[in-house]
Amino acid sequence: MGTGSLRNANPSHAASLPPPLAAIERPALFLDFDGTLVDLAPQPGAIRLAPHLMPLLEALGRRLEGRLAIVSGRALADLAGHLPAPALTLSGSHGGELRLAAVPADAAGSAFPEAAHLEALAFAAAHGLFVEAKPLGFAMHYRQAPDAERAVQVFADALGGRHGLAVKAGKMVTELMPPGIDKGKIVATLMAMPAFRSSTPVFIGDDVTDEDGFSAAAAARGFGVLVGAPRPTAAAARLADVEAVHAWLGAL
């Protein structure tokens, strides 16, 4: 099936359902994790995986001959702890870390300036934020302190400017990391690999950090799928929630 009618060149509110996975010509799936495969939780460690999720992903990987990657903002080690199957390709830190299926990941050293790290820790402690340290960055979660949103944004912009770091805003979280890393770049990297080459990329995600993935999929003659309520997006289709994502994936 062609995907021309699904391309969303001008970001708008994606309304249509994606076509059945079985109808897409040689699909390659790029799946966000939190908010897409698992429901969001107050803290990253509080998520719960549905019992059928791992068998579903492993079966999809086999059916797609390896053209499946989980692309998350979580650190790769954290993501792999939740999805331990070695047959899955995993990318953490918004595309900054990569573990190909059945290939051990290289150990990632910290690229986060120590001074920035200390400033962020002090700020988070003063504002009651939950802090998630990652090999390539630092995330400040304010889901349990929503009134701190504006202060977090101002602080992150200033800190990023002082230390040459990129600021990524998400759902009740702001992250600082080295510039030049995003989910779109890892989609392009994987699409150039033999297992993914000449396929139709479909990127599924729920957050603004997934927009780069939607755009990269569209640029490679595929499309993005937004999960959740309608909003301006580069995705061409939409699924209502995590349960709908599981149902769509399971229909292959």
TrEMBL record:
Pathway: Glycan biosynthesis; trehalose biosynthesis
A biological-process GO annotation: trehalose biosynthetic process
Keyword Metal-binding: yes
A Pfam family the protein falls into: Trehalose_PPase
Reaction(s) the record says it catalyses: alpha,alpha-trehalose 6-phosphate + H2O = alpha,alpha-trehalose + phosphate
Coiled-coil ranges (or none): none
Keywords assigned by UniProt, alphabetized: Hydrolase, Magnesium, Metal-binding
Molecular function GO labels: metal ion binding; trehalose-phosphatase activity
Cross-referenced InterPro entries: HAD-like_sf, HAD-SF_hydro_IIB, HAD_sf, OTSB-like, Trehalose_PPase
Domain of life of the organism encoding this protein: Bacteria
Cofactors named for this entry: Mg(2+)
EC number: 3.1.3.12
Family: Belongs to the trehalose phosphatase family.
Biological function: Removes the phosphate from trehalose 6-phosphate to produce free trehalose.
Family annotation (NCBIfam families): HAD-SF-IIB (TIGR01484), T6PP (TIGR00685)
Protein's UniProt name: Trehalose 6-phosphate phosphatase
Organism: Sphingosinicella soli
